């Protein structure tokens, strides 16, 4: 933090006009030099061959002018695909970027050539967020990353093994029957509490100062990341006054202070045997890896790099931080979309509740073992994730070597954006894709059916490491809610807007609902039940 502060002071001591001229001159000089090198044969490889259709591009700005407008990026990319074809290129500033709009090409990038496109671009905000790529999602592909990912995968499996305790978490703030409530705050609190329980075994009552701190820093990070896109395209903008980066740095500092405290507490109390939570499992795995390295034992797929640097405390901290950044926002947003679509389709809600009544009844809470017997409920969750993917564009990939997509050669270093919105709304694979139809995910016998083009968590080497955990968490939340309550629109209020708003994730606009009268409303509190379970990730 001291080094960063010194840099800020030194930058602010320069006359703003001089600083702006220096930055623009430096950026222009770099672009001119790059152009001269291309003209002089310095770059003998075109970005793609045969050439891909490419959006118009200007020096410095790239294709950004072609992307301006009211449409969010996923819809703009989809529309441009109708004009330029399903696979096209553009320049995000100086960065050559390929946009993938179809399952056929996404399968090449994610699965068939998954390792060739498993890289991640370095971006200023994510470098700050992850201490230079010490997490899983944004870290570049390497032997160390594979070791780290394997540790996290095994930790998700180990920390829940053998436990069957139920945690009653969250409340709907004492809302009376028929009273309109905004479901966002109680759901966000409940999901945050679940993640706190799974990561460091802390369960909070509503209003607890530490829970409030977690929610505030997490929301601050989410909001600032959503506004910080331009500095990731033009990193030199960080030298200009930037309140977004300042706020992001402050939120990260609060996050790291809290998580470092939890980590030190776990180090002191760590014992061998069954881990209590994710931090325990990560620390045990870290110790095991260090022991293996010290004794000359190499893990599967390890290399010389792995001997030189192992899993540090920063890796453990950033994994815990990622559980909040990825787990809280995506899960709570998906739950909001589920409720929004159920308000629009009450017959779907009734069918889910009928299935729950037949399989689970009212005498106990749903648990993980019920999932195989509740295919329609699962299909509702899948259809929500299809029609409103919280990540409509996957995290950017980078070509680690010269490769190809759709017969076009792609140069090493090219960025690739997979437009999951376009794939999940492609009429070639989905009949009437704009219609909400959970039956898409059921076969003729009413059992689960998952089309290969359904990839809400990505696929291949970069598939979300927490996919199984997230799916089971969603199942337990949705089943627990709909077993106990019926939801209906607030009187005199329009149904939720289903267009959504894109920030870090695709969120529904604010809406209200009521808990209807009936046998499902015997309690004045909305108890959300989550189970610590064994995660069997693929």
Looking at this protein, list some descriptive labels.
538 residues; alpha+beta; Cytochrome p450; 4-stranded mixed β-sheet; 3-stranded antiparallel β-sheet; 18 helices; 13 strands; disordered N terminus; disordered C terminus; lipid-binding; metal-binding; steroidogenesis; microsome
How far apart the termini lie comes to: 39 Å
Helix percentage range: 40-55%
Overall domain count: 1
Q: Strand share of the residues?
A: 5-15%
Characterization of the model:
This protein is α+β, with helices and mostly antiparallel strands and 538 residues long. The chain has a single domain, classed as Orthogonal Bundle (Cytochrome p450), CATH 1.10.630.10. It has 18 helices and 13 strands. It has helices spanning 2-12, 16-39, 64-67, 73-84, 103-112, 124-129, 143-158, 184-200, 209-227, 229-233, 243-269, 278-294, 304-308, 313-344, 346-359, 375-387, 420-424, 467-484; strands at residues 48-49, 87-92, 95-100, 166-169, 397-398, 403-405, 408-410, 415-418, 487-489, 501-502, 506-507, 513-515, 528-531. The protein has a four-stranded mixed beta sheet. It has a three-stranded antiparallel beta sheet with strand order 1-7-6. A two-stranded antiparallel ribbon has the order 4-13. A hairpin with a 2-residue loop joins strand 2 and strand 3. The longest helix is centred in the middle third of the chain and has 32 residues, at 313-344. The chain starts with a helix and ends in a 7-residue tail after the last strand. Residues 1-45, 160-174, 301-308 and 522-538 have low confidence and may be disordered.
